[in-house]
Amino acid sequence: MDSNFKWLLFAILISLTFSGFVLHHGVLAESVNPDEAKQLRDEVRGMFYHAFDGYMNNAFPLDELRPLSCQGEDTLGGYALTLIDSLDTLALLGDRERFISSVEWIGKNLQFNINKTVSVFETTIRVLGGLLSAHLIASDYATGMRIPSYNNELLVLAENLARRMLPAFDTPTGIPFGSVNLMYGVDKHESKITSTAGGGTLSLEFGVLSRLTNDPVFEQVAKNAVRGLWARRSNLDLVGAHINVFTGEWTQKDAGIGTSIDSFYEYLLKAYILFGDEEYLYIFQEAYRSAMQYLHKDPWYVEVNMDSAAIVWPVFNSLQAFWPGLQVLAGDVDPAIRTHTAFFSVWKRYGFTPEGFNLATLSVQYGQKSYPLRPELIESTYWLYKATRDPRYLDAGRDFVASLQYGAKCPCGYCHITDVELHKQEDHMESFFLAETVKYLWLLFDLAVDSDNLVDNGPYKYIFSTEGHLLPITPQISLAREHCSYFGGYCPSNSTKLEQEVLGEDSSNDDHSNDYPYHESFPVTGLIKGLCPGLTHAQKYGFSYVLPEKTDREDVNQPKPVVTSSSIVLISDQTVEKRPQEEEGFTSQSEPIMTISGGSSNDQTGQELTLLESETDDQRSYSS
Ligand code: DMJ
What we know:
Blueprint: H1 3-25, H2 34-58, E1 64-66, E2 71-73, H3 81-92, H4 96-109, E3 117-119, H5 120-138, H6 153-165, E4 179-181, E5 193-195, H7 196-200, H8 203-213, H9 217-230, E6 242-244, E7 250-252, E8 254-255, H10 262-275, H11 278-294, E9 296-297, E10 300-301, E11 303-305, E12 311-313, E13 315-317, H12 323-330, H13 333-350, E14 356-358, E15 363-364, H14 376-388, H15 392-408, E16 409-410, E17 413-414, E18 416-419, E19 424-426, H16 432-449, H17 454-457, E20 462-464, E21 470-472, H18 475-478, H19 480-485, H20 499-502, H21 537-541, E22 567-571, H22 580-583, E23 592-597
Antiparallel strand pairs: 1-2, 3-4, 5-6, 6-7, 8-11, 9-10, 11-12, 13-14, 14-15, 16-17, 18-19, 20-21, 22-23
Helix pairs in contact: 1-13, 2-15, 2-16, 3-4, 3-5, 3-16, 5-6, 5-8, 6-8, 8-9, 10-11, 12-13, 12-14, 13-14, 14-15, 14-16, 15-16
This protein binds 1-deoxymannojirimycin.
């Protein structure tokens, strides 16, 4: 069969699925109104406590709950994983009492000096991230959840844990081993193969830790890992799924936005927003453009060979569903809406999203029938509701609640669904159900009610880690002064002044040897933190803006850009002193302050549609 014809067939099948969704929607119940939104928010709160109390009463201090048999199991390191993952949800729900008692218990009882080999990725996103976000809440009056007796116990634990993971980064590529023993380091028999998500999703947690401890090592190793991966991208700017951390060879060359890669993309953009580090932005821009060019088959995404862009997997996998949420953060809302609609049509069809749904056969992918309580589609629903306030996202939220309540609720919590066609329950509840799934559902409805919560109406802007943990954009974490001056990044070195000089600080002491050495961390791309007043935005970023809005003034250096559908939105920092740009007509406070054209395209030129039907779950590994 001619490849163009195959592609046409594929496109027709996809549009049939899509139109099926639209028809289905015609018979939906009335849209969620404010009263119902409030009821749903309260119901979600009840869901949280059903699962949290179920865990505390039946499983704690083991890692996770077996919600059917009401028992516990150690699944990661044997350190009360679900409690750590739940801490900031407790704070978000305003449960002072349980937040305090949980933080105190962890501070007194947890220790990582244990002979356990753990996943670097899972330990970072669940445990390190959980500890750091709870620390930042418990130690800060502004959150309304400060614990008077708290004395940085969680930060000390976080640092201790991260140091135990550092040996994993000792590889020729800088990409860490997938697992590390918390007592003895990396075992000599440890596998050298790791996933792209596993090696490239550490920058938020490790970066925050560096900025809280003033020890740059954590931020540096995480960034080196990203560089190690990105340096091995293909000529198409795509990354594969698995790589050998010693040789740097890709052992699995399927490029995609889901399984094994997903949060690599997520952390590029979020690390930029949180830390103001433009190197991440540059990588994100290139990676995103390429993903939209080769992986996006509007509204779906496929997996392709990273070198040839030939389609190898025309499959929706449930981890892809975070992508529309990321696109909202990137300011690329239109494709996000279309993709969310398509992904949600899969949920509507089965009541849950299976791990894999084959876009060519329009059926559940063989061996990928389960729904392990994943949050991704709900997360994107929250972001799209936040961006559009379209009530259809509340309606989707109501469907999520109904499915979980009728299909997944079990005696002591919520059960995994082993088969979305049979709705069979399995005796397991991943900790991310409380860290993410319930959190995003609650936030969705709270947004429709009064948004009086830490995230939407709190003292800071928050970035969600990939595990849903709240990381505030505070001056200490985002190095707000660098944020102030990062508009000046990417300057020729002779026109650069370090921020201390620019901001009028005492620069008489030229000994910068004890400074936090961020300037060191840019040699690869030549990015420099500093201010070079003579450059336009386009020169600074290497991008052209679409139609900068005309102002009365002759200020060509800081044009106020026009939002395009393909853009990066920078979120302003509310906490810093007034910055020069505000005086020059920038939107301030909670409004996005500027956009950068990002470029997206949809290449549908005749690509090979190769179905690898024999590959099953057993042959592919998943990032959590
Ligand atoms: C979580 O651990 C994180 O969201 C991760 O990025 C992907 N897998 C699970 C949720 O599905």
